[in-house]
């Protein structure tokens, strides 16, 4: 990677606060590409592992770095990652939260769960599994699938780490061909790539410490790059949307000049302060914010991504799962408008029962139109029915193909009808309002991740 490429992922000097904040990133890619080993190498070489922990991950007298994240007995027996394992470490300049996502296709739902809250994704590519001598080489399906899912889930930065180049005869040629294949795929899919780095997780080359001139690469190590990646920007500058997670009542209070309940949750979009006019959904009631509290119950204004407790100026029926959103604004009217047809107000977040969405299908059974599922939007559970499958994305050609159903781990577009209207918005505008999950009503297993269009 050139110096220009590195500067593209650096944050400006005035953005030190964002750079210094904790970075949540995941490792993903195909099975056995070295994801767990890479994380183990990051932990060991950054001096984040104690000696007694290293002593507990020995196999045949040698340290098995993958065991630092593969903690389940089934994972250690089979030598694979099944569930997402989170690890925490810090350098002198930054803190990190790592999610080790499984590579097997059948555990795609776990990867989606980890990516939904990540700031960055490191997609590992095993050079030994590819026809690296061929300039027109084909990428593995899971490499493509995980990259597409990270892109769809608005993961802010995506890094390709080409692993095991120490095991090929010509690392420079392999890196050049694989990097070109990844760039061609990313451009066709509309994915912005922060960097492509050659690494050897086993030997530690370009993981924590740069290995100059290896594979024709002159850029920073993976850790040096991660220290400079930005966190995901909050959905600020938009109308307020706040999903109520918990309702607390002061039963002993006799003060009735304002509401006697605190509505706790996280600000999804916009900001909230004393005096903010709000509307409750689905009831439609109006109120004004009387207090905004932080986690130690001190008055403070809160913005997108921050947890808060809201007290309203009067008693309003609000339950867990309800939305507190910005009150509707007066509609812009013109003299020629018909007073009978022109609405007097414009809702901040219009509620709807019909949505078109991109869906990542994760159930073991195919998605068939007509079935009813539970849908979770924010903290609200409602019934949902998939009315129609519009098309399916071919992860190889990136073409949209006509389809009547979606197979397990497929990505497609669907039309969904909801039992109740919700304030749904496009996912590209709001992660909070634009995402749902579908849950099977019989097995209670997560069936799909839904991204509203």
Automatic annotation (TrEMBL):
PROSITE patterns: G_TR_1 (PS00301), G_TR_2 (PS51722). Its EC number is 2.7.7.4. Keywords: ATP-binding, GTP-binding, Nucleotide-binding, Nucleotidyltransferase, Oxidoreductase, Transferase. This is sulfate adenylyltransferase. SUPFAM superfamilies: EF-Tu/eEF-1alpha/eIF2-gamma C-terminal domain, P-loop containing nucleoside triphosphate hydrolases, Translation proteins. Residues 20-234 form the Tr-type G domain. InterPro entries: CysN_NoDQ_III (IPR044139), G_TR_CS (IPR031157), GTP-eEF1A_C (IPR054696), P-loop_NTPase (IPR027417), SO4_adenylTrfase_lsu (IPR011779), T_Tr_GTP-bd_dom (IPR000795), TRAFAC_GTPase_members (IPR050100), Transl_B-barrel_sf (IPR009000). Gene3D superfamilies: P-loop containing nucleotide triphosphate hydrolases, Translation factors. GO terms for molecular function: nucleotidyltransferase activity; oxidoreductase activity. Pfam families: GTP-eEF1A_C, GTP_EFTU.
